[in-house]
Request: fold
Amino acid sequence: MDVNIVKVKVKSVAPVYGIAVIWVLYVLIFPLYLTWHFIIPACLSVLTYFILSKIFPGSVKKIEVPIEPISTGDDAIDSLLAQGNLAISEMKRLHDSILDGNVCKKIIELISISEKIFDKLRAQPDVYRQVKRFTDFFLPASLKLLNTYDRIGNSGVEGENISGTMERIENALDMTLESYKKFFDSLFENVALDIETDITVLESMLKNDGLLEREF
Reply:
């Protein structure tokens, strides 16, 4: 089963243990007869929790979450959406692996636009052919660039060829990102034409009814 990698923040137990220690020590040393006797350890507990939370912020773990099968009722579209999910998951993995902040920022944009493209397919199945071309050509080429960048960047070796290749890939990502944006915009071409037609018809009706001045 295909899985998606999800980051989960796990809080440290140190602050809780710290509070327990405060109460145990306080009970052993001071009495707890009156209301204000409880106020002091309570305040110390809050302060301890705050300090230990800063010192021990916890950790981030990655867990695998099964990707629920996509079902739109159309096998071809379901297959394309599944391919899209796999590609986006791989982009997210590469984002976590690549250290360069500028490249990671570009990957985030690529992921965002890719998700919008497949959301568009889910909502408007008639863009299937366009999105299939995107899935068959754009995505594999993008992933190849990113995987190459990740592999040579984490090789631990420096050299003219390595640095030159990484720089060329970074420049190519700018071009790739621009092409993603243009492709996504192209999916709205029919919508723009339909709206233009609707506006033309509306203007004609308003003019015929005398509700809009005719052009002379």
